[in-house]
Amino acid sequence: MSTDTERVDVLGRTFQKISIDDSIYFAPVAIDDREEDRLAAQHDIFSRLLGDRLITRKIPLADPRRVLDCGYGSGDWCVQFAEEYEESEVTGVDIFPLHVADQPENLTLCGYNLNDRLRDPDVFQARAYDLVHSRFLCPGIKSNRWPSYIGDIKLLLKPGGWLQMVEYYPLIQSDSGRLTEQAAVRRWWLAYESSMRRLNRDPRIGRRLQQMMAEKGYRDVQVEIERLPIGGWQSANGTSADPVKSSIGRDAVTMMSDLLESLGLWPFTANLGWTAAQYDDLMSEIRSELQNEDLKLYIDIFDQMDGVYPKRDVRLAQVVLDSGTTPRSSMNIPAIMLDATYRLNFREL
């Protein structure tokens, strides 16, 4: 269990000192004002993509008794869940043990390095949870930790419990095809990927989760993709307009800009040796591109959902890509389609 809240300033942003010193987590922590605002916006946007829900509607979670939130950040998800399910016991763990204002009585928050095995009896209880929620941990989980992390969570779930994992990497693409390899967002991605691999992080972890799931006993993975537009361009031509997506897309412009800045600040300057001025110049170009609706920018989000089979000791999952496309077997999905946000919902039967 971690209780270390010592902070360090990096180019005007607030990081957790132990995370930087021990190479645990490389983004600002939620006590940083700008990061707190970004996390709140991110939570709002992804909840709206789920239809103003905290979990995918495919999870029939009628009466959850015990819930675990891994990597709670600013606490937006676990606080809202505890408020909506007042009879549940919710535990949130994060490398930076932030205490939130107006914390519900049924919510417990504690510090924990998720790169360690999830075996501390003061924090975790085996086969006890109806739902485990894990979101946006790619910058914090070491590349070689992911298989055992997924396995650890499986041992925490009750029979019939669920795991919802949300992972994405910000490979921004263009629906208009006008985004060149020289674009600022592409240059950011190439530098970020290089830096994170040096730091033993896998920014493409989403595409490997299916194999890891299978190795841990999950079966029959199916996938659907949903696009998160960046900007309101979906309604620009007045045809096939989606007012909900357009509204989300407009709000996503600032969130994505802040996301790229937060994720890249320390890796670029401390790990790759960029100057602050070089990074600021790149981010200025990125902001201009994100606001250019002629580029029709978006990222893909991968929803992986439940499967229910009446067989004893079968653990299975479905990966659902929700983009209005026809569901297909994830075994046939091109690799480029798997580099995006993954939301995994596993049911243990």
CATH class: Alpha Beta
Helix share, percent: 25-40%
Order of helices and strands: EEHHEHEEEHEEHHEHHEEEE
Rg, nearest Å: 19 Å
Named CATH topology? Rossmann fold
- Beta-strand portion reads 15-25%
- The CATH architecture designation is 3-Layer(aba) Sandwich
Number of strands: 13
The low-pLDDT segments are: 305-349
Number of helices: 8
Number of domains: 1
Distance between the termini: 30 Å
* CATH H level, superfamily name: Vaccinia Virus protein VP39
Average pLDDT number = 83
Structural class: alpha/beta
Using the alpha-carbon principal axes, give the shape. Answer: globular
Largest sheet: 11 strands, mixed
Task: Describe the model.
It comes from Leptosphaeria maculans (strain JN3 / isolate v23.1.3 / race Av1-4-5-6-7-8). Pfam families: Methyltransf_23 (PF13489). One of its GO terms (molecular function) is methyltransferase activity. InterPro entries: SAM-dependent_MTases_sf (IPR029063). The protein is an alpha/beta fold and 349 residues long. The protein has a single domain (7-348), classed as Vaccinia Virus protein VP39 (Rossmann fold, 3-Layer(aba) Sandwich), CATH 3.40.50.150. The protein contains eight helices and 13 strands. The protein has helices spanning 17-21, 33-49, 76-84, 146-156, 184-198, 209-215, 243-271, 276-290, and strands at residues 7-10, 13-16, 66-70, 89-94, 107-111, 129-135, 157-167, 173-174, 222-230, 297-304, 315-318, 328-329, 341-348. The strands form two sheets. Strands 3, 4, 5, 6, 7, 8, 9, 10, 11, 12 and 13 form an eleven-stranded mixed beta sheet that branches. Strands 1-2 form a two-stranded antiparallel sheet. Helix 2 (33-49) packs antiparallel against helix 7, helix 5 crosses helix 7 and helix 7 (243-271) runs antiparallel to helix 8. The longest helix is centred in the last third of the chain and has 29 residues, at 243-271. The two termini are 30 Å apart. The model is unreliable at 305-349 (pLDDT under 50).
